[in-house]
From TrEMBL:
The chain crosses the membrane at residues 33-50, 71-93, 99-122. One of its GO terms (molecular function) is sphingosine-1-phosphate phosphatase activity. The gene is RvY_08801-1. This is Phosphatidic acid phosphatase type 2/haloperoxidase domain-containing protein. It comes from the Eukaryota. SUPFAM superfamilies: Acid phosphatase/Vanadium-dependent haloperoxidase. Keywords: Membrane, Transmembrane, Transmembrane helix. Residues 1-114 form the Phosphatidic acid phosphatase type 2/haloperoxidase domain. InterPro entries: PAP2/HPO, PAP2/HPO_sf. Pfam families: PAP2. PANTHER family: AT30094P (PTHR14969:SF13), SPHINGOSINE-1-PHOSPHATE PHOSPHOHYDROLASE (PTHR14969).
């Protein structure tokens, strides 16, 4: 998308030594477009796909901790996006309008991709995960698990306890 837009719009870079930067065309900023695509997807994922951990009873402290880390991730992503966009104009690789257009396209495409993944790809994950090639590569479907970190933590603790009991039993029998 970015390459097509750059060639069709034909805007040159604001710097004088254009050979040093690769392509002469700079509209829209590829770095800003990708950064805001990723940041938009990340923010939508954190806001709408990450669910609170289902461990009852939930204390106010745990709820505020979950809300706090989500806010921290979103804030960090926004700061990173602004830093990328600002740096492109500050270093004279792009003009402000080139950065703004790249950022806008990234936001739109990130939103569209989030909707495509949620509407079409996630429902297909169970089917795809059952393919032989996916089973051979140990690709699994975890879309129905609300908190994958808590799930993995619990399963690993169970497995460790089971192995520890087996180890103790085998040591006693020897």
């Amino acid at each position: 998308m970015n390459m097509v837009l750059k060639r069709s719009l034909g805007h040159l870079r604001p710097c004088t030594n254009r050979k040093h930067y690769g392509s002469n065309y700079a509209m829209p900023s590829n770095h800003s477009q990708f950064a805001w695509f990723f940041i938009t997807y990340l923010i939508l994922f954190v806001l709408f796909r990450l669910r609170p951990s289902p461990v009852p009873p939930k204390s106010r402290w745990m709820e505020s901790l979950e809300t706090g880390w989500k806010a921290l991730v979103i804030f960090g992503a926004l700061v990173a996006g602004c830093a990328v966009s600002f740096s492109r104009a500050y270093l004279h690789y792009h003009s402000s309008s080139q950065v703004l257009l790249g950022s806008s396209i990234g936001i739109v495409l990130g939103t569209v991709w989030y909707l495509i993944v949620g509407s079409y790809l996630i429902p297909l994950f169970p089917v795809i995960a059952s393919w032989r090639v996916c089973e051979a590569l140990l690709i699994r479907d975890t879309t129905l698990i609300p908190n994958i970190f808590l799930f993995e933590y619990s399963k690993i603790r169970e497995e460790n306890s089971l192995r520890l009991r087996k180890l103790r039993t085998s040591n006693r029998s020897q």
